Amino acid sequence: MLSEEVQIEKEAQSPVFTIKTGTGEAGLSPSQFWEQLRHYYRTASLPKGYKHQKLVSVFQSVLGKEVAGKTAIGSQSFFQILDEEVAEYQTHINELFKQKSNDLITALQELLQVNESPQSIGEVYDFAAEVIAFDKLSGLIPETEGKQLTKSRSKRLVSVLEKLQQGLKYLEGEMATVISAETTKVDAKVLSHCQVISSKDDLFSGIEQSILEQIAQFIELIKAFRVATLEVDNTYKEDIHNDYFEHFSWYQLTSEERQLFHPFIVVAEHEYVVKRLDVYSRLLSTNWPINFFILNSQVTSPADEKVSWEDAAHRYRQELSMFTIAHRNVYTFQSTLVNRDVLLKGTRSCFQSTGPAMVHILYDEKDKLISNAGTASRYFPIINYDPGADPKAGPRLGLEGNDQPIKDWPEYELVIDEGIGDSTSLQLPFTYADYKALFPAKVNELLIIPTDFYSDPHLIALHEYLALDTVKLIGKVPFILLTDKDGNLFKAAVPNVWVVSCQERLDFWQFLREMARVEGEIKEAEEPKATPDNNLVAALRQKHEQEIRLLKDNAVKQAAEKLLGVLLRDK
Questions:
Q1: b/e code 473-511 from CB counts within 10 Å (16+ = b)
Q2: pTM of structure
Q3: Alpha-carbon distance 22 to 343, whole Å?
Q4: 453: phi > 0 → left, psi -120 to 50 → alpha, else beta; which?
Q5: What is the pLDDT of residues 177-233, one digit of tens each?
Q6: What are the phi and psi torsion angles at 484 (to 5°)?
């Protein structure tokens, strides 16, 4: 039995794969093989009588090793964490506000000359310190000199006092409101600090009325607070402030005041939202503080049976995150349930936003590998868009949390043993096609190439195929690597429909990188300016660099040919 130290070291090593070699059992001539292969590439139709093999993506074990150090959480665990985060944040904010409210209530009672001895507010509520910069409100509301306590003022003070006391009850209630469809099955026990409403009707139909009711209640609290502040300072002027507060609305609140509003969360399924984009867009455009938490279980793009594969392949996948970002005012976060730290940071920022926000989650309750691979393959990249960020400090769109964001595809190490010496280490890009090959049903769509034809120069690795110009692709067929349970490598031809979907995912990733200015972080050193004194030196340096570059190119070419020979050797 291995010791614990040796076992850990063994698990940390990369898996080793063995190259399959020619067996002479293909049963096809080169011309027959290529006729069959070209037909498959065009139509994605496997040859008649084709026998499937039990193979998986070569990245199955490689990514499994990557995921091993990450903690994945389920959807219900995610909501439990969200509940705790909301409770912690709102409790802190609420307690800060209560301190000032307590002071105002006491001062109002003194103005009204309350002779009774009611229970001290401080005994009922545990107050802390101040949160809102109330000294800044003086610039928002005109000042005036104080007056004696009149009948109208006395009536106003009584009304304000009652609303402040009612507001304190609001702050001590549930920390958030969560609305979801019955089919989503959000467990109310998990969200113990929230008011959970399960909608029996169309989910979006009642949101507008519900959020407006809560906003109206909250505005009354803030309005009472502001009036109380003016009254205590003896600066309330009826001919100005009566009209001002009569038309008081959500959009007149300061950012600090909006932070006090308890999060209003709508939990919806991705399929539901994309079918109601018009209503979803209208709700986002209101700029109301609605937090949309959208759960997406589509770990691969669903096929449309009404559309031929030739047309479907050229369609661009609908990105709910980009549709949301297009509104410009919505804090948008997209992630999976694998990277816990990234997930919590993004969701916390969203529900703390004073405007609309959207959290888009890809999840697979049965396999955390899929969630991690979905991000790595650029199928479901991590996106964080902050509309309130200062554009001078950097882009509003961030891609933090994505693996190797500077590259088109992340690269992982493969160790290959051909049985004639030391193993060869290879950095292989993980493409969207490799991600699809993680699913057994998708693997069955691929055509396994007979080992007799591995050395054919017209076969080209998919990541190289995607990087070539169109004119250089004539006669070429791309492939990806699969493996069996024993670690033997196989080449699988990829049909055109898969190629186009990879191109679409790559285009989306490059689009995101441009928006996030990821490549802008790498700056080339500035060339020294040419002068008459250094022209000769510059010319010699340029010649020397050209010679070195030529030597490097030849060395790289020789190494690549040697490695390719290892991979394609036809014994």
A1: eeeebbbbbbbeeeeebbbbbbbbbbbbbbebbbebbee
A2: 0.79
A3: 47
A4: alpha
A5: 999 988 887 888 888 889 999 888 889 988 999 999 999 999 999 999 999 999 999
A6: -100, -175
